[in-house]
Design goal:
The chain is of the alpha+beta class. The protein is built from two helices and six strands; from the N terminus they run αββαββββ. The protein has a single domain, classed as Roll (Thiol Ester Dehydrase, Chain A). Helix content is 15%, strand content 36%. A hairpin with a 2-residue loop joins strand 1 and strand 2.
């Protein structure tokens, strides 16, 4: 059994939803939250946007977990694409597990599974994430590849 952890980055939207971090290591993550009325859809079950957010954050944390605890690590991730399948309505205390399936220098391929209070699978997702040290905003200017000039022969 894992103990509740502190997030290593501040994400105001995650704080607003009340997500809790319970695992963050070795390409795995686990999030939990208590479903509140504000998180429900018109059928009084978890809104799909809440489930997708949990899956997205769990997968992103699984991707970051291989860098985040290393000294000097400052990698963030951004979602490139995500596919979600809703299996059944979700109610009560929710648990979401993220797993890093494969990574390259710049990309992480992940999956996430979300469970309800009765431990039934409610949603599953796969996603691709890009590792970044900073997020460019505003005006962008492209810089050419810095090549090493060939040495001249004597």
């Amino acid at each position: 059994m894992h103990e509740r952890l502190s997030f290593t980055v501040r994400i105001p939207f995650v704080e607003e939803l009340g997500l809790e971090l319970w695992r963050f290591e070795g390409g795995q993550s686990e999030l939990r939250m208590d479903l509140a009325e504000a998180h429900q859809n018109s059928f009084a079950v978890a809104h799909g946007g809440v489930l997708m957010t949990m899956l997205d954050v769990a997968m992103a944390h699984a991707a970051r977990s291989v860098h985040a605890r290393m000294p000097g690590a400052d990698h963030g991730v951004v979602t490139i694409e995500m596919k979600t399948s809703f299996v059944r309505p979700a109610e009560g205390r929710l648990r979401c597990e993220g797993r890093l399936l494969h990574r390259t220098t710049t990309l992480a391929f992940c999956e996430g599974s979300l469970y309800d209070a009765a431990d039934h699978l409610c949603a599953h997702a796969t996603g691709t994430f890009k590792y970044l040290r900073a997020l460019p905003t505003g005006t962008r200017s492209a810089k050419p590849l810095q090549r090493i000039a060939p040495k001249e022969s004597p």
